[in-house]
Amino acid sequence: MLTGCGFIPSSILQDLLGGGQFAKETIGLRVRVVCPTLGIYKGNLVQRAGITKIQLPGSMRKVSESMAKKKAFEGVFLLINEAYPSSSNKMMERCINPNSRKAPTKSSTADLKELGEMISKVLLACGVPDDLLIKYKKNCTEFQGRHHTFLVGMCDCTAGGLPPGTVFLTGFGVGSVHRKVFITRSPCTEPQDAKVIPIVSEKPTDMLQEDWNHLCSLPFGAVVFSSPQDDKAMSLVESINNSDLDGDLFFCLWDPCMLPFLEDAVGGLSVAHEKDILAEDKKIEDDPLIGAIVPLEVNGKLCNGVVERKADDGENYVIKCNSHTELMSYEALTSDLCEVVKVLTHRGKGRHREIEVLWGNGEKSWQCLSTLQKEVPTIIAEYAMERNLLSTNGWGWCKDYIREAEIVDVCDHRVFCSTLQVHVLHDGDLEPEWKDAKDVDTDLLQDYVEKHGISLKDRRWKWLQNEIKKAKKNWFAKAQDRVSDVKRMAEYSRFVESLHRAFK
């Protein structure tokens, strides 16, 4: 399971980046690949030895191939969003690598950030003593005392050579056998969001020498995750806070004083039992009914029962409400649940966040947010927007399901509480509404002031003059927004096909 990560030959990567020193120090790229005959791909490309072409797994594809009968072009656009490693990890490698002749620069040392509050709370929750954490936070403001960093996650770029349940830290050094690393990904709130994982530091028996040489040649800046033995099992990276490899950064800590406490709290992961643990986790996670709260009648009273597990017969489910236990079939459960009509309120934090929902049968019950997030995301997003939760922790994903109507006209303007506002009409609406002028598209405002003869020298509109200049310089972003408007997809397809016929 590659979970959002593909491969790129070293030669192609060098050519793309100009072949200089920067190219030689690059592990991989975060890219967007656009090709009408294949689709749109998003994720990381990591260097791999022994290949001659870029390899894109299905997990990287976010949009399927074009449905147009005539394709506008047969080429491929490869957009590079970021190159790894980061500049801070390049500086850290100077301390880690005993062969490095350079020390970190003074400016990079001054830019080092303290250990974040979220990570600190997780470490404390894992049993790290307060005095030990305080001492480490003081020491980690210098590279020499810093035993943590954020590394980009990459898939195994060998022929399955890394043992399951292990990782390889590029540029971390080899030769030390018994080393482990604490890994998690933000946002993290509980010990279950992290794992302590063995680091591969000697060539595995089944790995080709060519692959091992390639791994050892990569600079510091990436954590390479092994693949599971069973393709149906949850991958190691997914088991860490439900992560993937399309650009996620992982907090990695190898401090020898804190690791014993962390391993006791989250448990060490060994190669022997990794497959069984992950397969069991996957089985539970794939059953959306486990953990669901359903209306249950006990002694003539309605209460909330919890779907605890699947019964031993493999068909029914065990429902518990305090000391009461009963079996229910899948059909009975789903029949009782019906469909979610509305989200009423919410409670809890992190993984324990729940929402109270109104079902189609008129019943109300508390459900785990993460369970219903995949089932009714738009209904939850509407609730989040009504309660102004879109910018709060744990609700940001709802923004992907909120599509505001486009503003098509500016009708009037006024000054309200010292703020310039414009009366705007949204697509599909009959009545306009007042909106802050600075939140409206610059092109619409420019058309409005020109149409009504409003001078941009007016102190209330003077700011618009600067915005118009910025918009002219940033013309490509505007064109990109227009072209990506799905409402005009058919028009753009015809336009592109006409251009293709005219210039082919």
Automatic annotation (TrEMBL):
Keyword Transferase belongs to the record: yes
GO molecular function per UniProt: RNA binding; RNA-directed RNA polymerase activity
Name by which UniProt lists this protein: RNA-dependent RNA polymerase
Reaction catalysed by this enzyme: RNA(n) + a ribonucleoside 5'-triphosphate = RNA(n+1) + diphosphate
Domain RDRP core per the UniProt entry, residue ranges: 149-261
Any matching Pfam family: RdRP
Family designation: Belongs to the RdRP family.
The enzyme's E.C. designation: 2.7.7.48
InterPro entries from the UniProt entry: RDRP_core (IPR057596)
Domain of life: Eukaryota
Organism of origin: Ditylum brightwellii
Signal peptide residues on this chain, from the entry's feature table: none
Keyword RNA-binding: yes
Keywords from the named record: Nucleotidyltransferase, RNA-binding, RNA-directed RNA polymerase, Transferase
